[in-house]
Amino acid sequence: VHEPDEPLRRRTDHTGAVVDPEAEETRAEAHLRIAMETSTEAGWPVQHDKVQLDYLIDVLGFLVDALGDGRVACTPAKRAGLEVELAALQDGARPEVPAHDVEATAGKLIHLAEVLVEGRAHMEPFYAMLKATRRQIIRGVERRVRPGRLAVVGAGATQLRLSRSIAWWRAALAADACVPLAPRLSFPAAGSEGCALTFSDAAREDGTGLGGYAPIVCGGEKRLPLVAAQWPEDLLRMLQSNELSMPAGELFALVAIVTAVVHHVGGVSHVIALTDSSATAEAVNGGASGSAQMQALLLWLSELCPGVRAARCSNPARRLRWREG
């Protein structure tokens, strides 16, 4: 890129700010400016404070591998760094860590989860930990404040959930989790080989339960698996008293039918799910939920059906209301 003896910069400083508007751009500055302008015009705004121009740079993004089938993955250096950070959060000899360390690690994982979307279901414990407060007397008034250090290791419910999430992320990074570089441009239609269309529902009146069915074509053969079960008495009472939320009951029905089809029919690569529960649709589409009950079910689904891709979970009743309105 360089002309002989040409410096990296003439017109800008190390932050990218223009310090000499009259100076001629170096080739490196011109290449960088064109790349940033092109990216912005394409709808991908560039964060200037993360742009680097040097002979050695820190790799902040993803590894894009065009060899073979191609893939998008976390770079080896970033995986190694995250392993050190995650291991530190599970160090029993260091049960409390600075809150900003947890926040920094969570920020990197959120970035990864934009591509490795199955990781979204494992972010909730990080959010819960970062929202933790403790009572403190300030000028004679009791207030709740964010602590500077967080107890990340222990037997508390949030600590145990965080430990399981950290273990998942460490395993995923160790296995070099990645996504295809060139995925399908369109989701297969219902009725295509290996694409299940699931319908599920649940109720909580006496004598009711959950059910669902999923038409699917496997090996050229049309199948229609059915799932139906009555709630055990204890679960029914929990649903009726709202100790167990009805959206969690609806999500349980969805998980039950999808898991049954994947494990008992086989050949399932994609799922299109229909539900009449808005909360269930939003949890599945978002890959995470603020409800501990629904979050547990999402984790269960991702662990029982790895590799199965789901289209956006649809709520037909909500769509009909929108059309009529």
Task: Describe it.
A hairpin with a 5-residue loop joins strand 1 and strand 2 (71-74). The chain has 10 helices and 14 strands. It has 325 residues and is an alpha+beta fold. The radius of gyration is 25 Å and the shape is globular. The model is unreliable at 317-325 (pLDDT under 50). The strands form 5 sheets. A 5-stranded mixed sheet has the order 12-9-8-13-14, covered by helices on one side. The longest helix has 19 residues, at 246-264.
User: What structural class results from the helix and strand content?
Assistant: alpha+beta
Strand coverage percent:
15-25%
Helix content: 25-40%
Uncertain ranges: 317-325
SSE succession: HEEHEHHEEEHEEEEEEHHEHHEH
Largest sheet report: 5 strands, mixed
Number of beta strands: 14
Radius of gyration: 25 Å
Q: Note the total helix count.
A: 10
Average pLDDT, rounded to a whole number, is: 84
- Strand order, largest beta sheet: 12-9-8-13-14
For the terminal residues, how far apart are their CA atoms?
Answer: 59 Å
- Which of globular, elongated, flat, extended, rod-shaped describes the shape? globular
